[in-house]
Amino acid sequence: MHNIELAIFDMAGTVVNEKNVVYKTLQKAINKKGHDLSLDFVLEHGAGKEKHQAIKDVLTAIKVDKEEEPSEPIFEDFKSMLDDAYDTLSVTSFEGVEQLLDNLKSQNIKIALNTGYNTKIAELLLRKMQWEKGKQFDALVTADDVSKGRPDPAMIYRAMEILGVEKASEVLKAGDSIIDIEEGKNANCGVTVGVTTGAHTKAQLNSASPTFVLGSLSELADYIKGKS
User: Fold this and answer.
1) At what angle do helices 71-88 and 21-31 cross, to 10 degrees?
2) Residue 100's pLDDT band (boundaries 50, 70, 90)?
3) Are the C-beta atoms of 192 and 173 separated by less than 8 Å?
4) Is 108 exposed, middle or buried (0-12, 13-18, 19+ CB in 10 A)?
5) Pair 124, 21: CB distance under 8 Å
6) What pLDDT band is residue 78 in, cutting at 50, 70 and 90?
7) Do the beta carbons of residue 217 and residue 96 sit within 8 Å?
8) Residues 107 and 193 in one domain
9) A GO molecular function for this record (predicted)?
10) How far is CA 195 from the centre of its chain?
């Protein structure tokens, strides 16, 4: 069992089940330019990142000349398409997640959410799930709150600052993508966790050498406890 003061969870694919609509929309926005990329390819190169950066990295992976095909129009199209997709989308948490959060809070473990989404999208997801700050989570940090996105540890450091946590060794970072694990490692988190409910497979997550990989975030209670 690992003693933890703060647990930081990625949102989509980790605690939020939005059926990969963001990456499906990102895939559509890029493919509208004449490409034929699979969702798996987009997830491989874009998962967990600030979404404009994700588009840039996907285009780089297919060796697109950024002068001939700039990323900005694709990003603007993506945002408009995503607004339309979210109007009717049903969003829930994964099974067992809310019970896990209750368990952690009962042990005085602080809970932060962080995400490569902007604040507008993150807050929309939370409203759809009827989650409130002070109940299911204690802090939200989005791509808008930092100057550098994952795998830079800036969002983790910001969450620690907001919640008064000083030791990264007592912080857990969990996410569904390789870049979540890299972010945690770059922050020197005491525990890094991959979960297979989202972007990447068990083998892909293990390639980043997390502390452990789970099939469901609800299993986490078996591995951590609050500080004595």
Assistant:
1) 140
2) very high
3) yes
4) exposed
5) no
6) very high
7) yes
8) yes
9) phosphoglycolate phosphatase activity
10) 11
Q: Are 123 and 191 contained in the same domain?
A: yes
Tokens representing residue 10 in the block:
């990625």
pLDDT for 164-189, tens place per residue?
A: 999 999 999 999 989 999 999 999 99
- Domain-ending residue, one of 88, 113, 138: 88
What distance in Å separates the CA atoms of residue 140 and residue 9, rounded to the nearest whole number?
10
Kindly report the CATH number assigned to the domain that includes residue 181: 3.40.50.1000
**Other CB atoms within 10 A of residue 64 CB:** 18
Checking 140-143 for CB contacts under 8 A at 24+ apart, the result is 140/112, 140/113, 140/114, 140/115, 141/112, 141/113, 141/114, 141/115, 142/114, 142/115, 142/117, 142/118, 143/50, 143/51, 143/115, 143/116, 143/117, 143/118
- Structural domain including 72 reads 21-88
* 135, 36: one domain: no
Strands 6-10 and 171-175, by their bridges, are: parallel
Question: Do both 32 and 112 map to the same domain?
Answer: no
Q: Is 176 in a helix, a strand, or coil?
A: coil
Q: What does the pLDDT average to over 45-67? A: 88
Same domain, 117 and 40: no
Q: Which amino acid is at 126?
A: L
